[in-house]
Here is the input.
Amino acid sequence: MIEAGLVLEGGAARGVFTAGVLDYLMEQRIEFSYVCGVSAGASNAVDYVSEQIGRTRDAMIPKDKKYRMVKLSAIPTQHSLLDMDMLYDRFPNELIPFDYDTYFRSPLRCEMVVTNALTGKPEYLDDRTNRERFMAICRASGSMPIFTPYVYVDGVPYVDGSIGDSVPVLHSMQQGLKKQIVVLTRRESYRKSAPSAAVAAFYRIYFKKYPALLEAMMNRHVMYNRQLDLVRKWEQEGRIFVLRPQVQEVGRLESGTEELMKFYRHGYELMKERFGELSAYLEKG
Here is the structure.
């Protein structure tokens, strides 16, 4: 086990890039002592800890079209554009089994970032005993506001972790680990824009019940861009190792098999190409 933090950004379908990165690392038997994942990054994180090569890829790029993530038929039954029941129930418990036993026994620390709808703040959760609560945390981390409903854990409403902490590298550093590996799902040039006047007006209506969450949604672009600037600064200083796409990203709701597989392979091949750099970074004092 390598004493280092592994930080995984979300991005819905863009998470297939991270899946490729982690599949290569698992093939090389690289284990980092601490993993922190956000949204799709949380799904990648738990599959990394459970040592299931290819599982995230297979869940994000199902062979049968009826198992795709975006499903209009989920709107009347789940009040969701995404089939969350399939992603966080049928897949892990039936169709693409999640190895709960390996995960619960693993010595690797893992935290999934969720955003508390009442406070608008991020929380970092895990559960190594209760399968239902564990999967509820996974679901909460990936519950995109507006597109999917709130997820309740211990009676508290949560939404996507990216609202509160999109790139939790600072939280990972606070775990006392000197080495940090950050996997982003956007290219280096990307910066998030402020919500338009129309979107902001919609937010004020939709999140009226949760004013702290509304504030977090309105200011997310500021927080996210500041995080990206810090990541770039620390990367240039050699303090952290960063892997990000070098090609055009897929959209967060992309469902095309060919497009998703290309982005997955890009992550795999890029990690393979830069594996020597990663090894040198980890060995450096």
About this structure: Residues 71-79 have pLDDT under 50 and may be disordered. The radius of gyration is 18 Å. Strands lie at 2-8, 32-38, 109-116, 122-125, 151-153, 156-160, 180-183, 240-243.
